[in-house]
Amino acid sequence: MPGALPEGESVPRDGSLPAAARRAVGARGFGVYVHVPFCASRCGYCDFNTYTAAELGGGASRETYADTVLAELALAGRVLGESPPPRVDTVFVGGGTPTLLPADDLARILDGIDRTWGLAPDVEVTTEANPETVTPESLRTLRAAGYTRISLGMQSAAPGVLAILDRQHSAGRATAAAREARDAGFDHVNLDLIYGTPGESAEDFAASLDQVVAAGVDHVSAYALIVEDGTRLAARMRRGELPYPSDDVAADRYLAAEAALDAAGFSWYEVSNWARSEAARCRHNLLYWTGADWWGLGPGAHSHVGGVRWWNVKHPSAYAQRLAAGESPGLARELLTPAEAHMEDVMLRLRLADGLPLAGLDEPGRAAAGRALADGLLDADRYAAGRAVLTLRGRLLADAVVRDLLP
């Protein structure tokens, strides 16, 4: 089941923000995230804030969800008032399974964002999708509405691996959906992979990579399986039905992904993401990773505006009830201190291919960077130019490098 939200100070009933935050909005870019919390079934590894029909209860439904999101969007427009962002640079619709909503509803939400704040002429608009929930017709509708990018949850090409993960689509459906998206006119198509699943062989993962490359997509995300408490997969492992993931196997899979994708013309730009060109990089995720602002719409969605971060109530029914009463769905918020903002900046930017400036580290951090360089974890040429950029070995140990660079 979904994990717990963090604690924080109360959000005002009207959702109002400090004047300083409103004045700063959009200075480093502005995006909108829309969370769609519905899934047809729950994958065994998933602890995201998602709900099947049986878990929803009363007060929330797919049929009325677009209207509820538009109600939060209207509130957001009132909160920012005369200090709106100069434009919306990116929109990302995630979940859950956004494409369980009718394509026309996803189009209405995007139109509402445009009417509230205005979309930049070169806006990137992404939706996530499970491969079995899209058709050529729905993809054409989304593209005509202004969606420019789609991210499809492939996870694996091996039927046995998909079964362990409780995925519902067939082994070949993800790559077929990717081709349908390109035929529908999407500018950019991503396929998501998960590696290190119990029972996955090196040959299984190699076949997945081969199918991704053959599908003609221009972006690939690949993540090691993480076993979260409270999931069905964690319960199976505790009972001894499945072995726990191996760090050594995960490292081998990562190296295999880097080799295969590099040979196919992809370049890494974040530890878990590869793109065929700079234009194919996910600009919305880069907005997160570089400390820009975004408004998160939907239950459990997080937002960040002018140094204030807040998160909405989790359950779709509670979310809908608050908005129906004319109240903010925000559950709690925090004002980031300079130290917290610095910590997050180091943690996120070091994962990028551009790295971070050494000048932004304190003296102990620069000393730690020197040790990382000596250990082969940072690129020597980039270090000489004043930046900390991970080597391939450093990417395998990124979390440890970050811990060393921070106080």
From TrEMBL:
The keyword 4Fe-4S applies. It comes from the Bacteria. GO terms for cellular component: cytoplasm. Keywords: 4Fe-4S, Chaperone, Cytoplasm, Heme, Iron, Iron-sulfur, Metal-binding, S-adenosyl-L-methionine. The keyword Transmembrane helix does not apply. Residues 24-267 form the Radical SAM core domain. SUPFAM superfamilies: Radical SAM enzymes. SMART domains: Elp3. CDD domains: Radical_SAM. InterPro entries: Aldolase_TIM, Coproporphyrinogen-III_oxidase, Elp3/MiaA/NifB-like_rSAM, HemW-like, rSAM, rSAM_sf. Signal peptide: none annotated. GO terms for molecular function: 4 iron, 4 sulfur cluster binding; coproporphyrinogen oxidase activity; metal ion binding. It holds the Pfam family Radical_SAM. It is found in: Cytoplasm. Probably acts as a heme chaperone, transferring heme to an unknown acceptor. Binds one molecule of heme per monomer, possibly covalently. Binds 1 [4Fe-4S] cluster. The cluster is coordinated with 3 cysteines and an exchangeable S-adenosyl-L-methionine. Belongs to the anaerobic coproporphyrinogen-III oxidase family. HemW subfamily. This is Heme chaperone HemW. It comes from Micromonospora auratinigra. The lineage of its organism: Bacteria, Bacillati, Actinomycetota, Actinomycetes, Micromonosporales.
